[in-house]
Structure formats: structure tokens, C-alpha cells
Amino acid sequence: MPLLTTHDAAVAAATELAAALAPGASERDRNGATVIPADALALLDASGLLAVTIPSADGGPGLGPSTLAEVTRLIAAADPAIAQVPQAHYLLIDILAVHGDDGLRKRLYADVLAGRRIGNALAERGGQHAQDLRTRVAGGVLTGTKYYTTGALTSAWIAVSALGEDGRLVLAFVPRDAPGVAVDTDWDVIGQRATISGTATFTGVPVEFALDYAGAYEVPQQLGARAQLVHAAIEVGIAGGALADTRAYLREKARPSTEAVRAGATRATEDPHVMYRYGRLATRVRAAEALLADAARTLDTIGRVPADAATAAEGSLAVAAAKAFGSEVAVEAGSELFALCGTSSAASKYNLDRHWRNARTHSVHDPVDWKYHHLAAWELNDTRPPNHGQL
């Protein structure tokens, strides 16, 4: 398994992976949860990218948020569903780095360095919100049902949030193939279909490895910001992928409208309205990329453990801006594609609507409006954002 020790090496590996993923992205989207994207995930697992953020003290490359954001953006531009599969994996590497003991880090990091992923089972359905948990660890045994389990189906380990016997939040790490673990393919949504983020059921699963998860958010932290940075990179990647397909279609397939011909255009790319709208969209995509890079640099400076609450807030707000704006631009790019390229681009054979579907589905992972709210609360009222995992 390659150990990607520099930013350039990681970016090169992501570029190569993206090129390999791009030709099959549309078909994986069409297949949804009916066909597990085993070949695509095997390429991801063998790329060395799963380990880029493992601390150097634990035998990893120790690369930072700027590398992770760019790697994710590149992959997401090719296939955002595959890019999302390791999102929680990177969060869990961070959690282990800050809160895992030596034995737990050694056990799981060794597997990650060997190309094995950690999936997540954090959210639930049926409660007041996704973190209204019914899953329990009692007597060293895990029992419960989870949903939105991105990456769990094909992972080596699954990190499961649960309440312990004292009612305190814990994070249990169980092998994917442990007795009592069942992961379903009941993922049925309009976008991000190949993530196969369906139901996971845990029935009397023995727990050998666990940590106090509540404590992670009782102190100033950047776990939420770093996790949200990957989500932001997925959105910005979707926007870039949609823009690239728009450009290709306009240059290779689109015909000028009758009005454009009357105005003297011989190609769709000469239509003045197409040029205006494309230029505007391209500028907004570049702005989203710049905000993402700026947020990543901010987190690079802060590190995994912020010095204080003020520093933690700085990182959270920088990422909030990138995520909120990137989500808007991704949805816009997926829609503008058809306004620019015309009726023929809506043919199902092109499957270009996947860009909008992916952006729209992923953008509601957590409320974008609240990110703008927290940005305004800080700018107008000096109110710091809340300390939780979605900021």
C-alpha cells in the first residue's frame, strides 16, 4: 500500500483515482444500491489516500486539512458518491488521534495503513433528530439500529455511537464481519446513490474497543469543522464536475438557439447569453474553490486541538462559509447546466441530471441556513457558534 507522505503525492494519487472513476460514475449512479460499487471502492482502498491524515507519530503521513480538502474535491468532481464514502472515515481518524488510547490507535491505524476503511453508524431514525439515540452498550454488548451509514457496508470496521449504561455517549468500534452486525442495501434516494448509506443493525455485538465520545464535544474542538470541511469539498467538487460537463457539452454537442443564429452565432459557445451565464457560473465555482482552500488553510493553522474556544470558533466559521456557499453553487451548477446546454442535454442517455441530484441530496446533510445564521451571529453580535459535530 503506498504511503503518500507529501501533499503533491496525495494530490497526484487523487487525480489518478478521479480519472479512473470518472468513466463509470454515471453507471454507478444509475445502479444505485442494486450494485455495490466494489471495483470503484477497491481503487479507493488501494490508492493510499485512506491514510493521509494519520498522524506521523502513529506511522502515517500526517498530512493536513488542505491536502484532505483538495483530495476530496478532485474525487468528488469525478464521482461524489465515492468521495463521500470515506468522509466519516477521516473524522474517525481525527477522533482516534485526539481521544483514542494507544492500543485502539495502533489496532485501527494499522488496518487503515493497509487500505482498510472505517465506516460509520452514527445517525438514527424515529427520534426527534438524527442524534436522538436508542442504541445502547450494556454489559459490553452493542444493540441498536442505525441509518445513513455511509461506508459501513464495505468497511473493515464500523464506529457506532451509543449510550452507555450511565447514559453517557460512547463510540464503539466493531468489526464489520462481527456476529450480530447486519448492513442492508435499502438506500433509495435521488442522489449520492452509490454511497449505499442504508440501515445497519447491531444485535448483541461484543464491544472490545470504545471511547468516551461525549467528552470530545465538552471541550473546544475542531472535529466538527474538519468533518464539515470534507462535506464542503464534496459540494465544491460536484460544482466543478457539473461545470466541466457543461463546458464539454457546449463545445462538443450543443447547437446554438435560433435567436443566437439570428444574432450571428454559429456555435453555442458564441451565444452571448450562454457566454454570460457560463462566465458567471464559472466565477462562482472558482469562488467556492477559493473559500474551500481558505477554510482548509485556517484548519491547517489551528491543528486538531484548538488552543481555546475562540480559535475553535474561527475554524468552525471558516468552514461554515465554505460549506454554505459551496452547497448553493453546486445546486446552481447542476441546474444551470440545462439552461446553458438546452433541451437535448436533458436526454436520459447523458444522465447529466445526476449533478443536480447529487448536489441537492448531499447539500441537505445538515442545514445550510444555520451556517449563515452562525456567521451572522458572530459578525453582528460577537456570538460564537455552538460546539458540536456539524460546525
From TrEMBL:
Keyword vocabulary terms for this entry: Oxidoreductase
Entries under Pfam families matching the protein: Acyl-CoA_dh_2 (PF08028), Acyl-CoA_dh_N (PF02771)
Sequence ranges assigned to domain Acyl-CoA dehydrogenase/oxidase N-terminal in this UniProt record: 12-115
Domain Acyl-CoA dehydrogenase C-terminal, residue spans: 229-367
InterPro entries in the cross-refs: Acyl-CoA_DH_C, Acyl-CoA_Oxase/DH_mid-dom_sf, AcylCo_DH-like_C, AcylCoA_DH/ox_N, AcylCoA_DH/ox_N_sf, AcylCoA_DH/oxidase_NM_dom_sf
Gene3D superfamilies associated with the record: Acyl-CoA dehydrogenase/oxidase, N-terminal domain (1.10.540.10), Butyryl-CoA Dehydrogenase, subunit A, domain 2 (2.40.110.10), Butyryl-CoA Dehydrogenase, subunit A, domain 3 (1.20.140.10)
Membrane-spanning residues: none
Domain of life: Bacteria
Protein name as catalogued: Acyl-CoA dehydrogenase family protein
Organism, as annotated: Paractinoplanes ovalisporus
